[in-house]
Structures are given as C-alpha cells and as structure tokens.
Amino acid sequence: MYRAFLGLFEKKGDKDSIAKYARLYCEANDSSVAVKDQELTALMAATYNYSKIQKESFENEKKLLRRNVQIVIIIVSVILIAIAGFYFFRRYRQSLILRQKEAELKHKKEQEAKQKTLKAISKELSKKDDQNKELAKLNDSLREELKNANLNETLLTEMERYNKFADTVIFKKFTQASKIPTIKITENDWKLLTKVFGYYYPQILEDVSQLRSKKTELRLRICILTVMGMANKEQSSLLNETKQSITNNTAALNEALFGEKLSSTFYTKLKSRYKLI
User: Fold this and answer.
1) What pTM value is reported for the model?
2) Hey, is 204 helix, strand or coil?
3) How far apart (Å, rounded) are the C-alpha atoms in residues 131 and 149?
4) Average pLDDT of span 113-125
5) What is the DSSP string of 119-151?
6) How many CA atoms lie within 13 A of 43 on its CB side?
C-alpha cells in the first residue's frame, strides 16, 4: 500500500509526500521482515520441539517395547520351567510306579516260589507220612505175628523157624519184589526185614554185624537174602548191584565168617554153622 502511494507521489513530484511514504514503506517493510523472522523462529522452535517430542516418544516406546519383551521372555521362561518341571515330575512319578510294580512282581514271584516250596514239602511230608503209616502197619503185623508166636518156646525146629520167617509180611513183599520189578523196596523195608531176620536168626545178625567193613550193611543184606533162598540174579535186582558185585561180596562174607574165599560154598557153610534147612 505504501509502495503504491510512493509511486503516485513520485509521478506528481511531491517531494514531501515522497519522503513521508518512503519512510513509512521502509518501516512497514522492516516490520514484515521481523514478522517473517518471528514466524520462522517459531517454526524452527516448533520443529525442534516436535523432533524432541518425537525422539522422547520413540525412546519411551523403545523402553516400553524392551520392557514388554522382557516380560514376555520372563513369562515364556516361567512357562517352559513349569512344563519342564511337570515333565520331570511325571517321569519321576512313572519311575516310582514302575519300581513299585517291579517290587510287587518280585514279591509275588517270591511268594509263588515259597508256595511251591511249601507244597513240595507238604507233599514230601505226606509221602513220608504214608511210608510211616505203612511201616507202622508192618510193625503192627510183626508185633501181631510175634505175639501169636510162643516167645517162651526155645526149641523151635529149623523148619518151623524158617516157615514163620517166610510167613511174615515183609518176607512176602521181598519175595514178590524179586519177581515183579514194579514193586519198589524202600529203606524202611530193609530196616524192617533186618529187624524180623534178627528175631528169627539173632546169631547170624550179630556175627555179620560185627564184621568191620565199609560194605557190612550190603553184605548183611546179601546174607539175609541168601538165607531167604534167593539166587544172585534176584539179589542183584533187589540190591541194585551187578551179579559180579554180589558174587564178590558173597566170597568176602564166606572168607570173613568161615575162612573160605569161594562164593559158591557160602550157603553150605551157613547151613552147617547155624543149623539152617
């Protein structure tokens, strides 16, 4: 505006007006520049403040993000630790259950083994009880036979003595066993036969029993079977010995009792010394 008036008065040549409007134009122009400078300064300040605010905001967001990441890491770590703890606890519990089952199975097997052992022992005891009953029955028979015999009779003829011996239950059992292999002879049977033989032939039992030999028991049994009239073959079967063993032990008996080393003359020597039939 001042510039338009200045141009107008310059055309008219009005120097006072020209000087006046020239001064006003300069003042107005200076004021406009100052305003522009102020606006620029304000813009720069606003830009700086905005940049600062933006930077602070970015830093805050960065810190917040870092904190959130840390929180997430902590949460994930806690979850992983919890999962690992649960896994190891489960494995430990399964291990305990497995050990308990193994212990129970071992205990069960031990109990079963004990039960089997007890059953076997019970069976064996039952078997022995049956054998004892059989022996008791035989003893009862013997006692009955001995009771029926005239114990005060001292002059029994050899025939009567042999017949009484042959009529005993145990004599008959051995006679049957010598013919029928399925009939088994037990140790108790041998003891009972020896006892009965000793009753009817006490002197023979005493003489043979006094022989000092590791085979005294075998040779006594050979002697008893010989008196009963059994041959080497039958003796071999009952004694579970070979015929040669029977022959050798018979010869040894003949030598020990009668001083003769032949087995064939043993029964003849027995008959002669002990008045056998």
Assistant:
1) 0.46
2) helix
3) 26
4) 76
5) HHHHHHHHHHHHHHHHHHHHHHHHHHHHHHS-T
6) 6
